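Page 42, continued from yesterday. The earlier attempt failed because a stray header line got pasted into the input along with the sequence. Redoing it now with the clean sequence only.
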Amino acid sequence: MLIATNSSKIDISLEVKTAELAKSFSKILKKGDIVFFHGEIGVGKTTFIRYLVNYLQTDNHLIQTEVTSPTFNLVNEYDVGVFTIQHYDLYRLTNSQETKNIGLFENQKEILTLIEWPEKIDNKIDNKIDLFFEYEENMNKKFLTIKGISNKILNEIS
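This time it went through. C-alpha cells are written below.
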C-alpha cells in the first residue's frame, strides 16, 4: 500500500485536467487498493471515476464501458482486464449498519474498491487513499486534494 502524506490542492476546474489526473492516477492503482472519494454532489467524483475506469480498460485493450454513478443500485462492477473494480456509492444509505449488508470489503484483496460517500462507513480503514473534491468558495473552481500516497508518487501524477 502507499505511504500516507498530504498533498496540495490541484485545480480540476477544467474537465481535461480531471481526465489527465485520472489517467495518471490509474497507473499507480492495483488490486487490493481502496480509494475514498469525498465531496458534495456534482463536484466531479463520478467524472473522475469514469475517466479512471476507461483509462484502465483502454490500457488493457478492452472496450470502454459506460461508467455511471451507482447511486440507486449501490455498486457497479467493471472489468479492467488485470482486476475488477467495484464502484460503490453510499449516498442513499441511512446508517452504517447498511454498509455491512452490501458486502463492502468482502473480496478487498482481489479487487480495486472505489467508494463515494465513505463518511457512511463506521469501521476505520487504515490503508486507503483519500481523494477530497471541493468547490472554491464562489463555486467557480473545483479542486482535488489527494492523501494516502507518497509525495514522490503525488508529484508524478499531478
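Notes: Residues 1-5 have pLDDT under 50 and may be disordered.
Reminder to self: strip header lines before submitting.
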